[in-house]
Amino acid sequence: QVQLVESGGGLVQAGGSLRLSCAASGSIRSINIMGWYRQAPGKQRDLVAVISIGGSTNYADSVKGRFTISRGNAGNTVNLQMDSLKPEDTAVYYCYYRSFVDYWGQGTQVTVSS
Fold first, then answer.
1. Checking phi first, is residue 113 left (phi over 0); if not, alpha (psi -120 to 50) or beta?
2. 70 with 51: CB under 8 angstroms?
3. What span, in angstroms and rounded, lies between the C-alpha atoms of 58 and 9?
4. How far apart are CA 113 and CA 21, in angstroms?
5. pLDDT tens digit string along 18-57?
6. By C-alpha distance, which of 95, 48, 57 is closest to 76?
7. Cα torsion at 9, 13, 19, 20 (round to 10°)?
8. Whether pLDDT at 75 is above 90
9. Cα-based distances in Å from 27 to 4, 97, 102
10. Cα–Cα distance measured from residue 96 to residue 35, given in angstroms and rounded to the nearest whole number
């Protein structure tokens, strides 16, 4: 089993920044993918960004150039630096871990006001 603990969500003005962090613990495999998804009110959960153990990344078009995903040196943490935030970024952000099966964090609220 893998446990994911997120931090860093909050309320920010449009144009501001937040940094989300997620720490994974438990049965961590050496080959895995970690990242972030988000779910806005009334919408489905969508990919924000993912990163492989080797550093390959994939971003949603809506966040390219504004968000940066990275992994900690130990490989069991993932961060999401969010800059130039927009009201449409408002959502619950979920940490994601994939090896043989998928795991999800509990979610952290990000609210961007105009």
1. beta
2. yes
3. 21
4. 21
5. 999 999 999 988 889 999 999 999 999 999 999 999 899 9
6. 95
7. 30
8. no
9. 11, 11, 12
10. 5
Residues in the chain, total: 114
* Integer Cα distance of 81 and 111 in angstroms: 15
- HEC secondary structure over the chain: CEEEEEECCEEEECCCCEEEEEEEEECCCCCCEEEEEEECCCCCCEEEEEEECCCCEEECHHHCCCEEEEECCCCCEEEEEECCCCHHHCEEEEEEEECCCEEECCCEEEEEEC
